Structures are given as structure tokens and as C-alpha cells.
Description:
Elements: E1 13-15, H1 21-38, E2 47-48, E3 51-52, H2 60-79, E4 87-98, E5 103-107, E6 114-121, E7 129-132, H3 136-140, E8 155-158, E9 165-169, E10 174-176, E11 185-195
Antiparallel strand pairs: 1-9, 2-5, 3-4, 4-11, 5-10, 6-9, 6-11, 7-8, 7-10
The structure holds fe (ii) ion.
Amino acid sequence: MLNRIPAFDYPFYYVEQIENYKDANKYLLEILRQKKNEDPIGRNVSNRGGYQTSHFWSHELFHEFGKIIKPYIEELKKEIRLKDGIQIDVDGAWINENKGFNFNVPHLHPKCHFAVVYYIKFPKNGGAIGFQNPNKAASMFGLMDATDCSHFRHDLDIVPKTGSLLIFPSYFEHYVLQGDNIDTRITCAFNMKINENES
Length: 199
Ligand SMILES: [Fe+2]
């Protein structure tokens, strides 16, 4: 029997639907409402079309959202075997709202260790999130049609649902594909930093 050794395995995590996602959405949609009132144009970063808020991670309602997802972050700390006393801090948070045919170009999340995407609303026919394999050598084999093993793939699309949570290393290049959605596709993204100086 072959024993697979997790050699250089990627710490990439997915929760199909978090607990209390309805409360999470209530908090985040209220932040979105406030941000749109303050700034109806929004930011333009990786988004092409759609609306993106400025950063709001100190907002009290984001702290309420933080309480809901804390168990998943604690699980992440165990998964990556983070040593005692080392903290994971949130560093930047924003909300994206895409209508059908809006998309996000390939990008990374620099100056942090993990990127997180939470799906406040994933409408019918919403655009999937796509990831490129950071191991370009594996996809250079050209075996993507010969095997279903994701190791050999060039890219990977994930179709989430409302309440889904994705956590992945910030060096994973990713993008949002165009959807055919009539309702808006709303996500909250944030970055996390491992702070080795915390005690
Ligand atoms: Fe992103």
C-alpha cells in the first residue's frame, strides 16, 4: 500500500457553508450599505466593473462577523500547526459586489500570508473563482487530461454557495470569472497575517 506523504502540501481550505451565515450576512450587508452611502463609486483594484469598498476591518460589525468565523480560524491554526503564542491577525477587509459580466483579473494578495473569501451572496449562474497552480512545473507535464489529480492541473475553478468560506495562501494567483447572474454576487475578502512577534 502506498502511503501518501503530504510533501509541500498547500494549506488551502474550503467550508461549504459556515454556521450562522445568515447573521454573518446581516452584519456584512450593513457594512456594504454604509460604505456605498459614504462612497458610491468605490475602489477599482482587480475588479472590472462592479463595486468594491474601501478597507473596513476596524468596523464594529466586522468584529461581530469575526466572532462567527473565529472557530474556523482556530481550526486553521491547528491545521497549519502554528506554534503556541503566535497569532493570526486580520490585515485589510473589503466587500466586492459583481453584477453579471463583471469579473476580477488574476491577482495575488501581497504583504500577508493568507487570503480569505467569504460568500455573502452567490447567485444563480454567478461567476466561479479560479486559481492557478502555483507549481508551474507540475502543469508543464501536460497531464491535465490524463488524470483527475489536481496536482497536475494548470487551474482550478470553485463554484461556491452563499455562506461558503475559502482560505488559501496569498501567493495563489486567482481571479473571478464572468457570470450570467441577474442577482448580484457579493463577497467579503480579507487578508490574514501570521504575527510572530505576538506573545
Ligand atoms: Fe483576491
